Amino acid sequence: MARLCPHCGIKSRFDSVFPSGIGKNCDDENGFHYIERCQECKGIVYSIWNVDLDAPVYKPVISHEGTYQKEKEDEEATPAEKFSYPFILMNPPITISDSFEKSFVEGVKCLNVGAPFASVVMFRKCLQIIAEDKGATKGTLKEKLESLSVSGTLTSTLESISTVIREVGNDGAHPNEFEPSIDDAKDILDFLLLLIDQIYILPEKAEKLRARRTSSIK
């Protein structure tokens, strides 16, 4: 069965590296454990498949950010994937610099292993690199974001999202009362991806469409 690879983001088939039927997972439910290799990028994925014939079946659904979600399908007793690691796409959707790519990948790795403090700090670093790439090179990160808001690079919504990334990143780095959880870190990743989409990806798509239209009219 083809499914989205969390390493390369391509819907691919997987070859078994380690045989199934290894035993049980860490919970009290039975499961077949697989170690598989993506046929496209050769990335390794570890997954657990449900074999409880009395349990309702849930089919895996891939969300826009690449995480595995569950959607109830029916009561028929057929195997279904319960867990997959890594569960989030590993590579950034754009390339700004080596530092950005390393920070993004490290942030996702930290999230995958359950280290939200380190994860949000890395995503905050990504935000700072974005701000500087867009011309805000002076002052603190707060001042850089304010500068981008004044210049129109950040809408009020994007400024609000950026502020949350900055503040939660600070919480991860310093002994504050608020301690980011895994769910908080996942939200920060969602916000960062939305910011990238709005600032980089969508404008580039619009420009390419405008160029195709202009070329067609001529």
Quickly list its features.
two-stranded antiparallel sheet; 20% strand; Four Helix Bundle (Hemerythrin (Met), subunit A); alpha+beta; four-stranded antiparallel sheet
How does this model look, in words?
This protein is of the alpha+beta class. It has two domains: 83 residues; 120 residues, Up-down Bundle (Four Helix Bundle (Hemerythrin (Met), subunit A)). The protein is 45% helix and 20% strand. The protein is built from five helices and eight strands; from the N terminus they run E-E-E-E-E-E-E-E-H-H-H-H-H. The chain has a four-stranded antiparallel β-sheet with strand order 3-4-5-8, with no helix packed on it. The protein has a two-stranded antiparallel ribbon with strand order 1-2.
Chain-wise SSE layout:
Layout (H helix, E strand, L loop, with lengths): L2 E2 L6 E2 L1 E5 L12 E8 L5 E7 L6 E6 L5 E7 L5 E6 L12 H15 L3 H18 L7 H11 L4 H18 L8 H36 L1
Antiparallel strand pairs: 1-2, 3-4, 4-5, 5-8, 6-7
Helix pairs in contact: 1-2, 2-4, 2-5, 3-4, 4-5
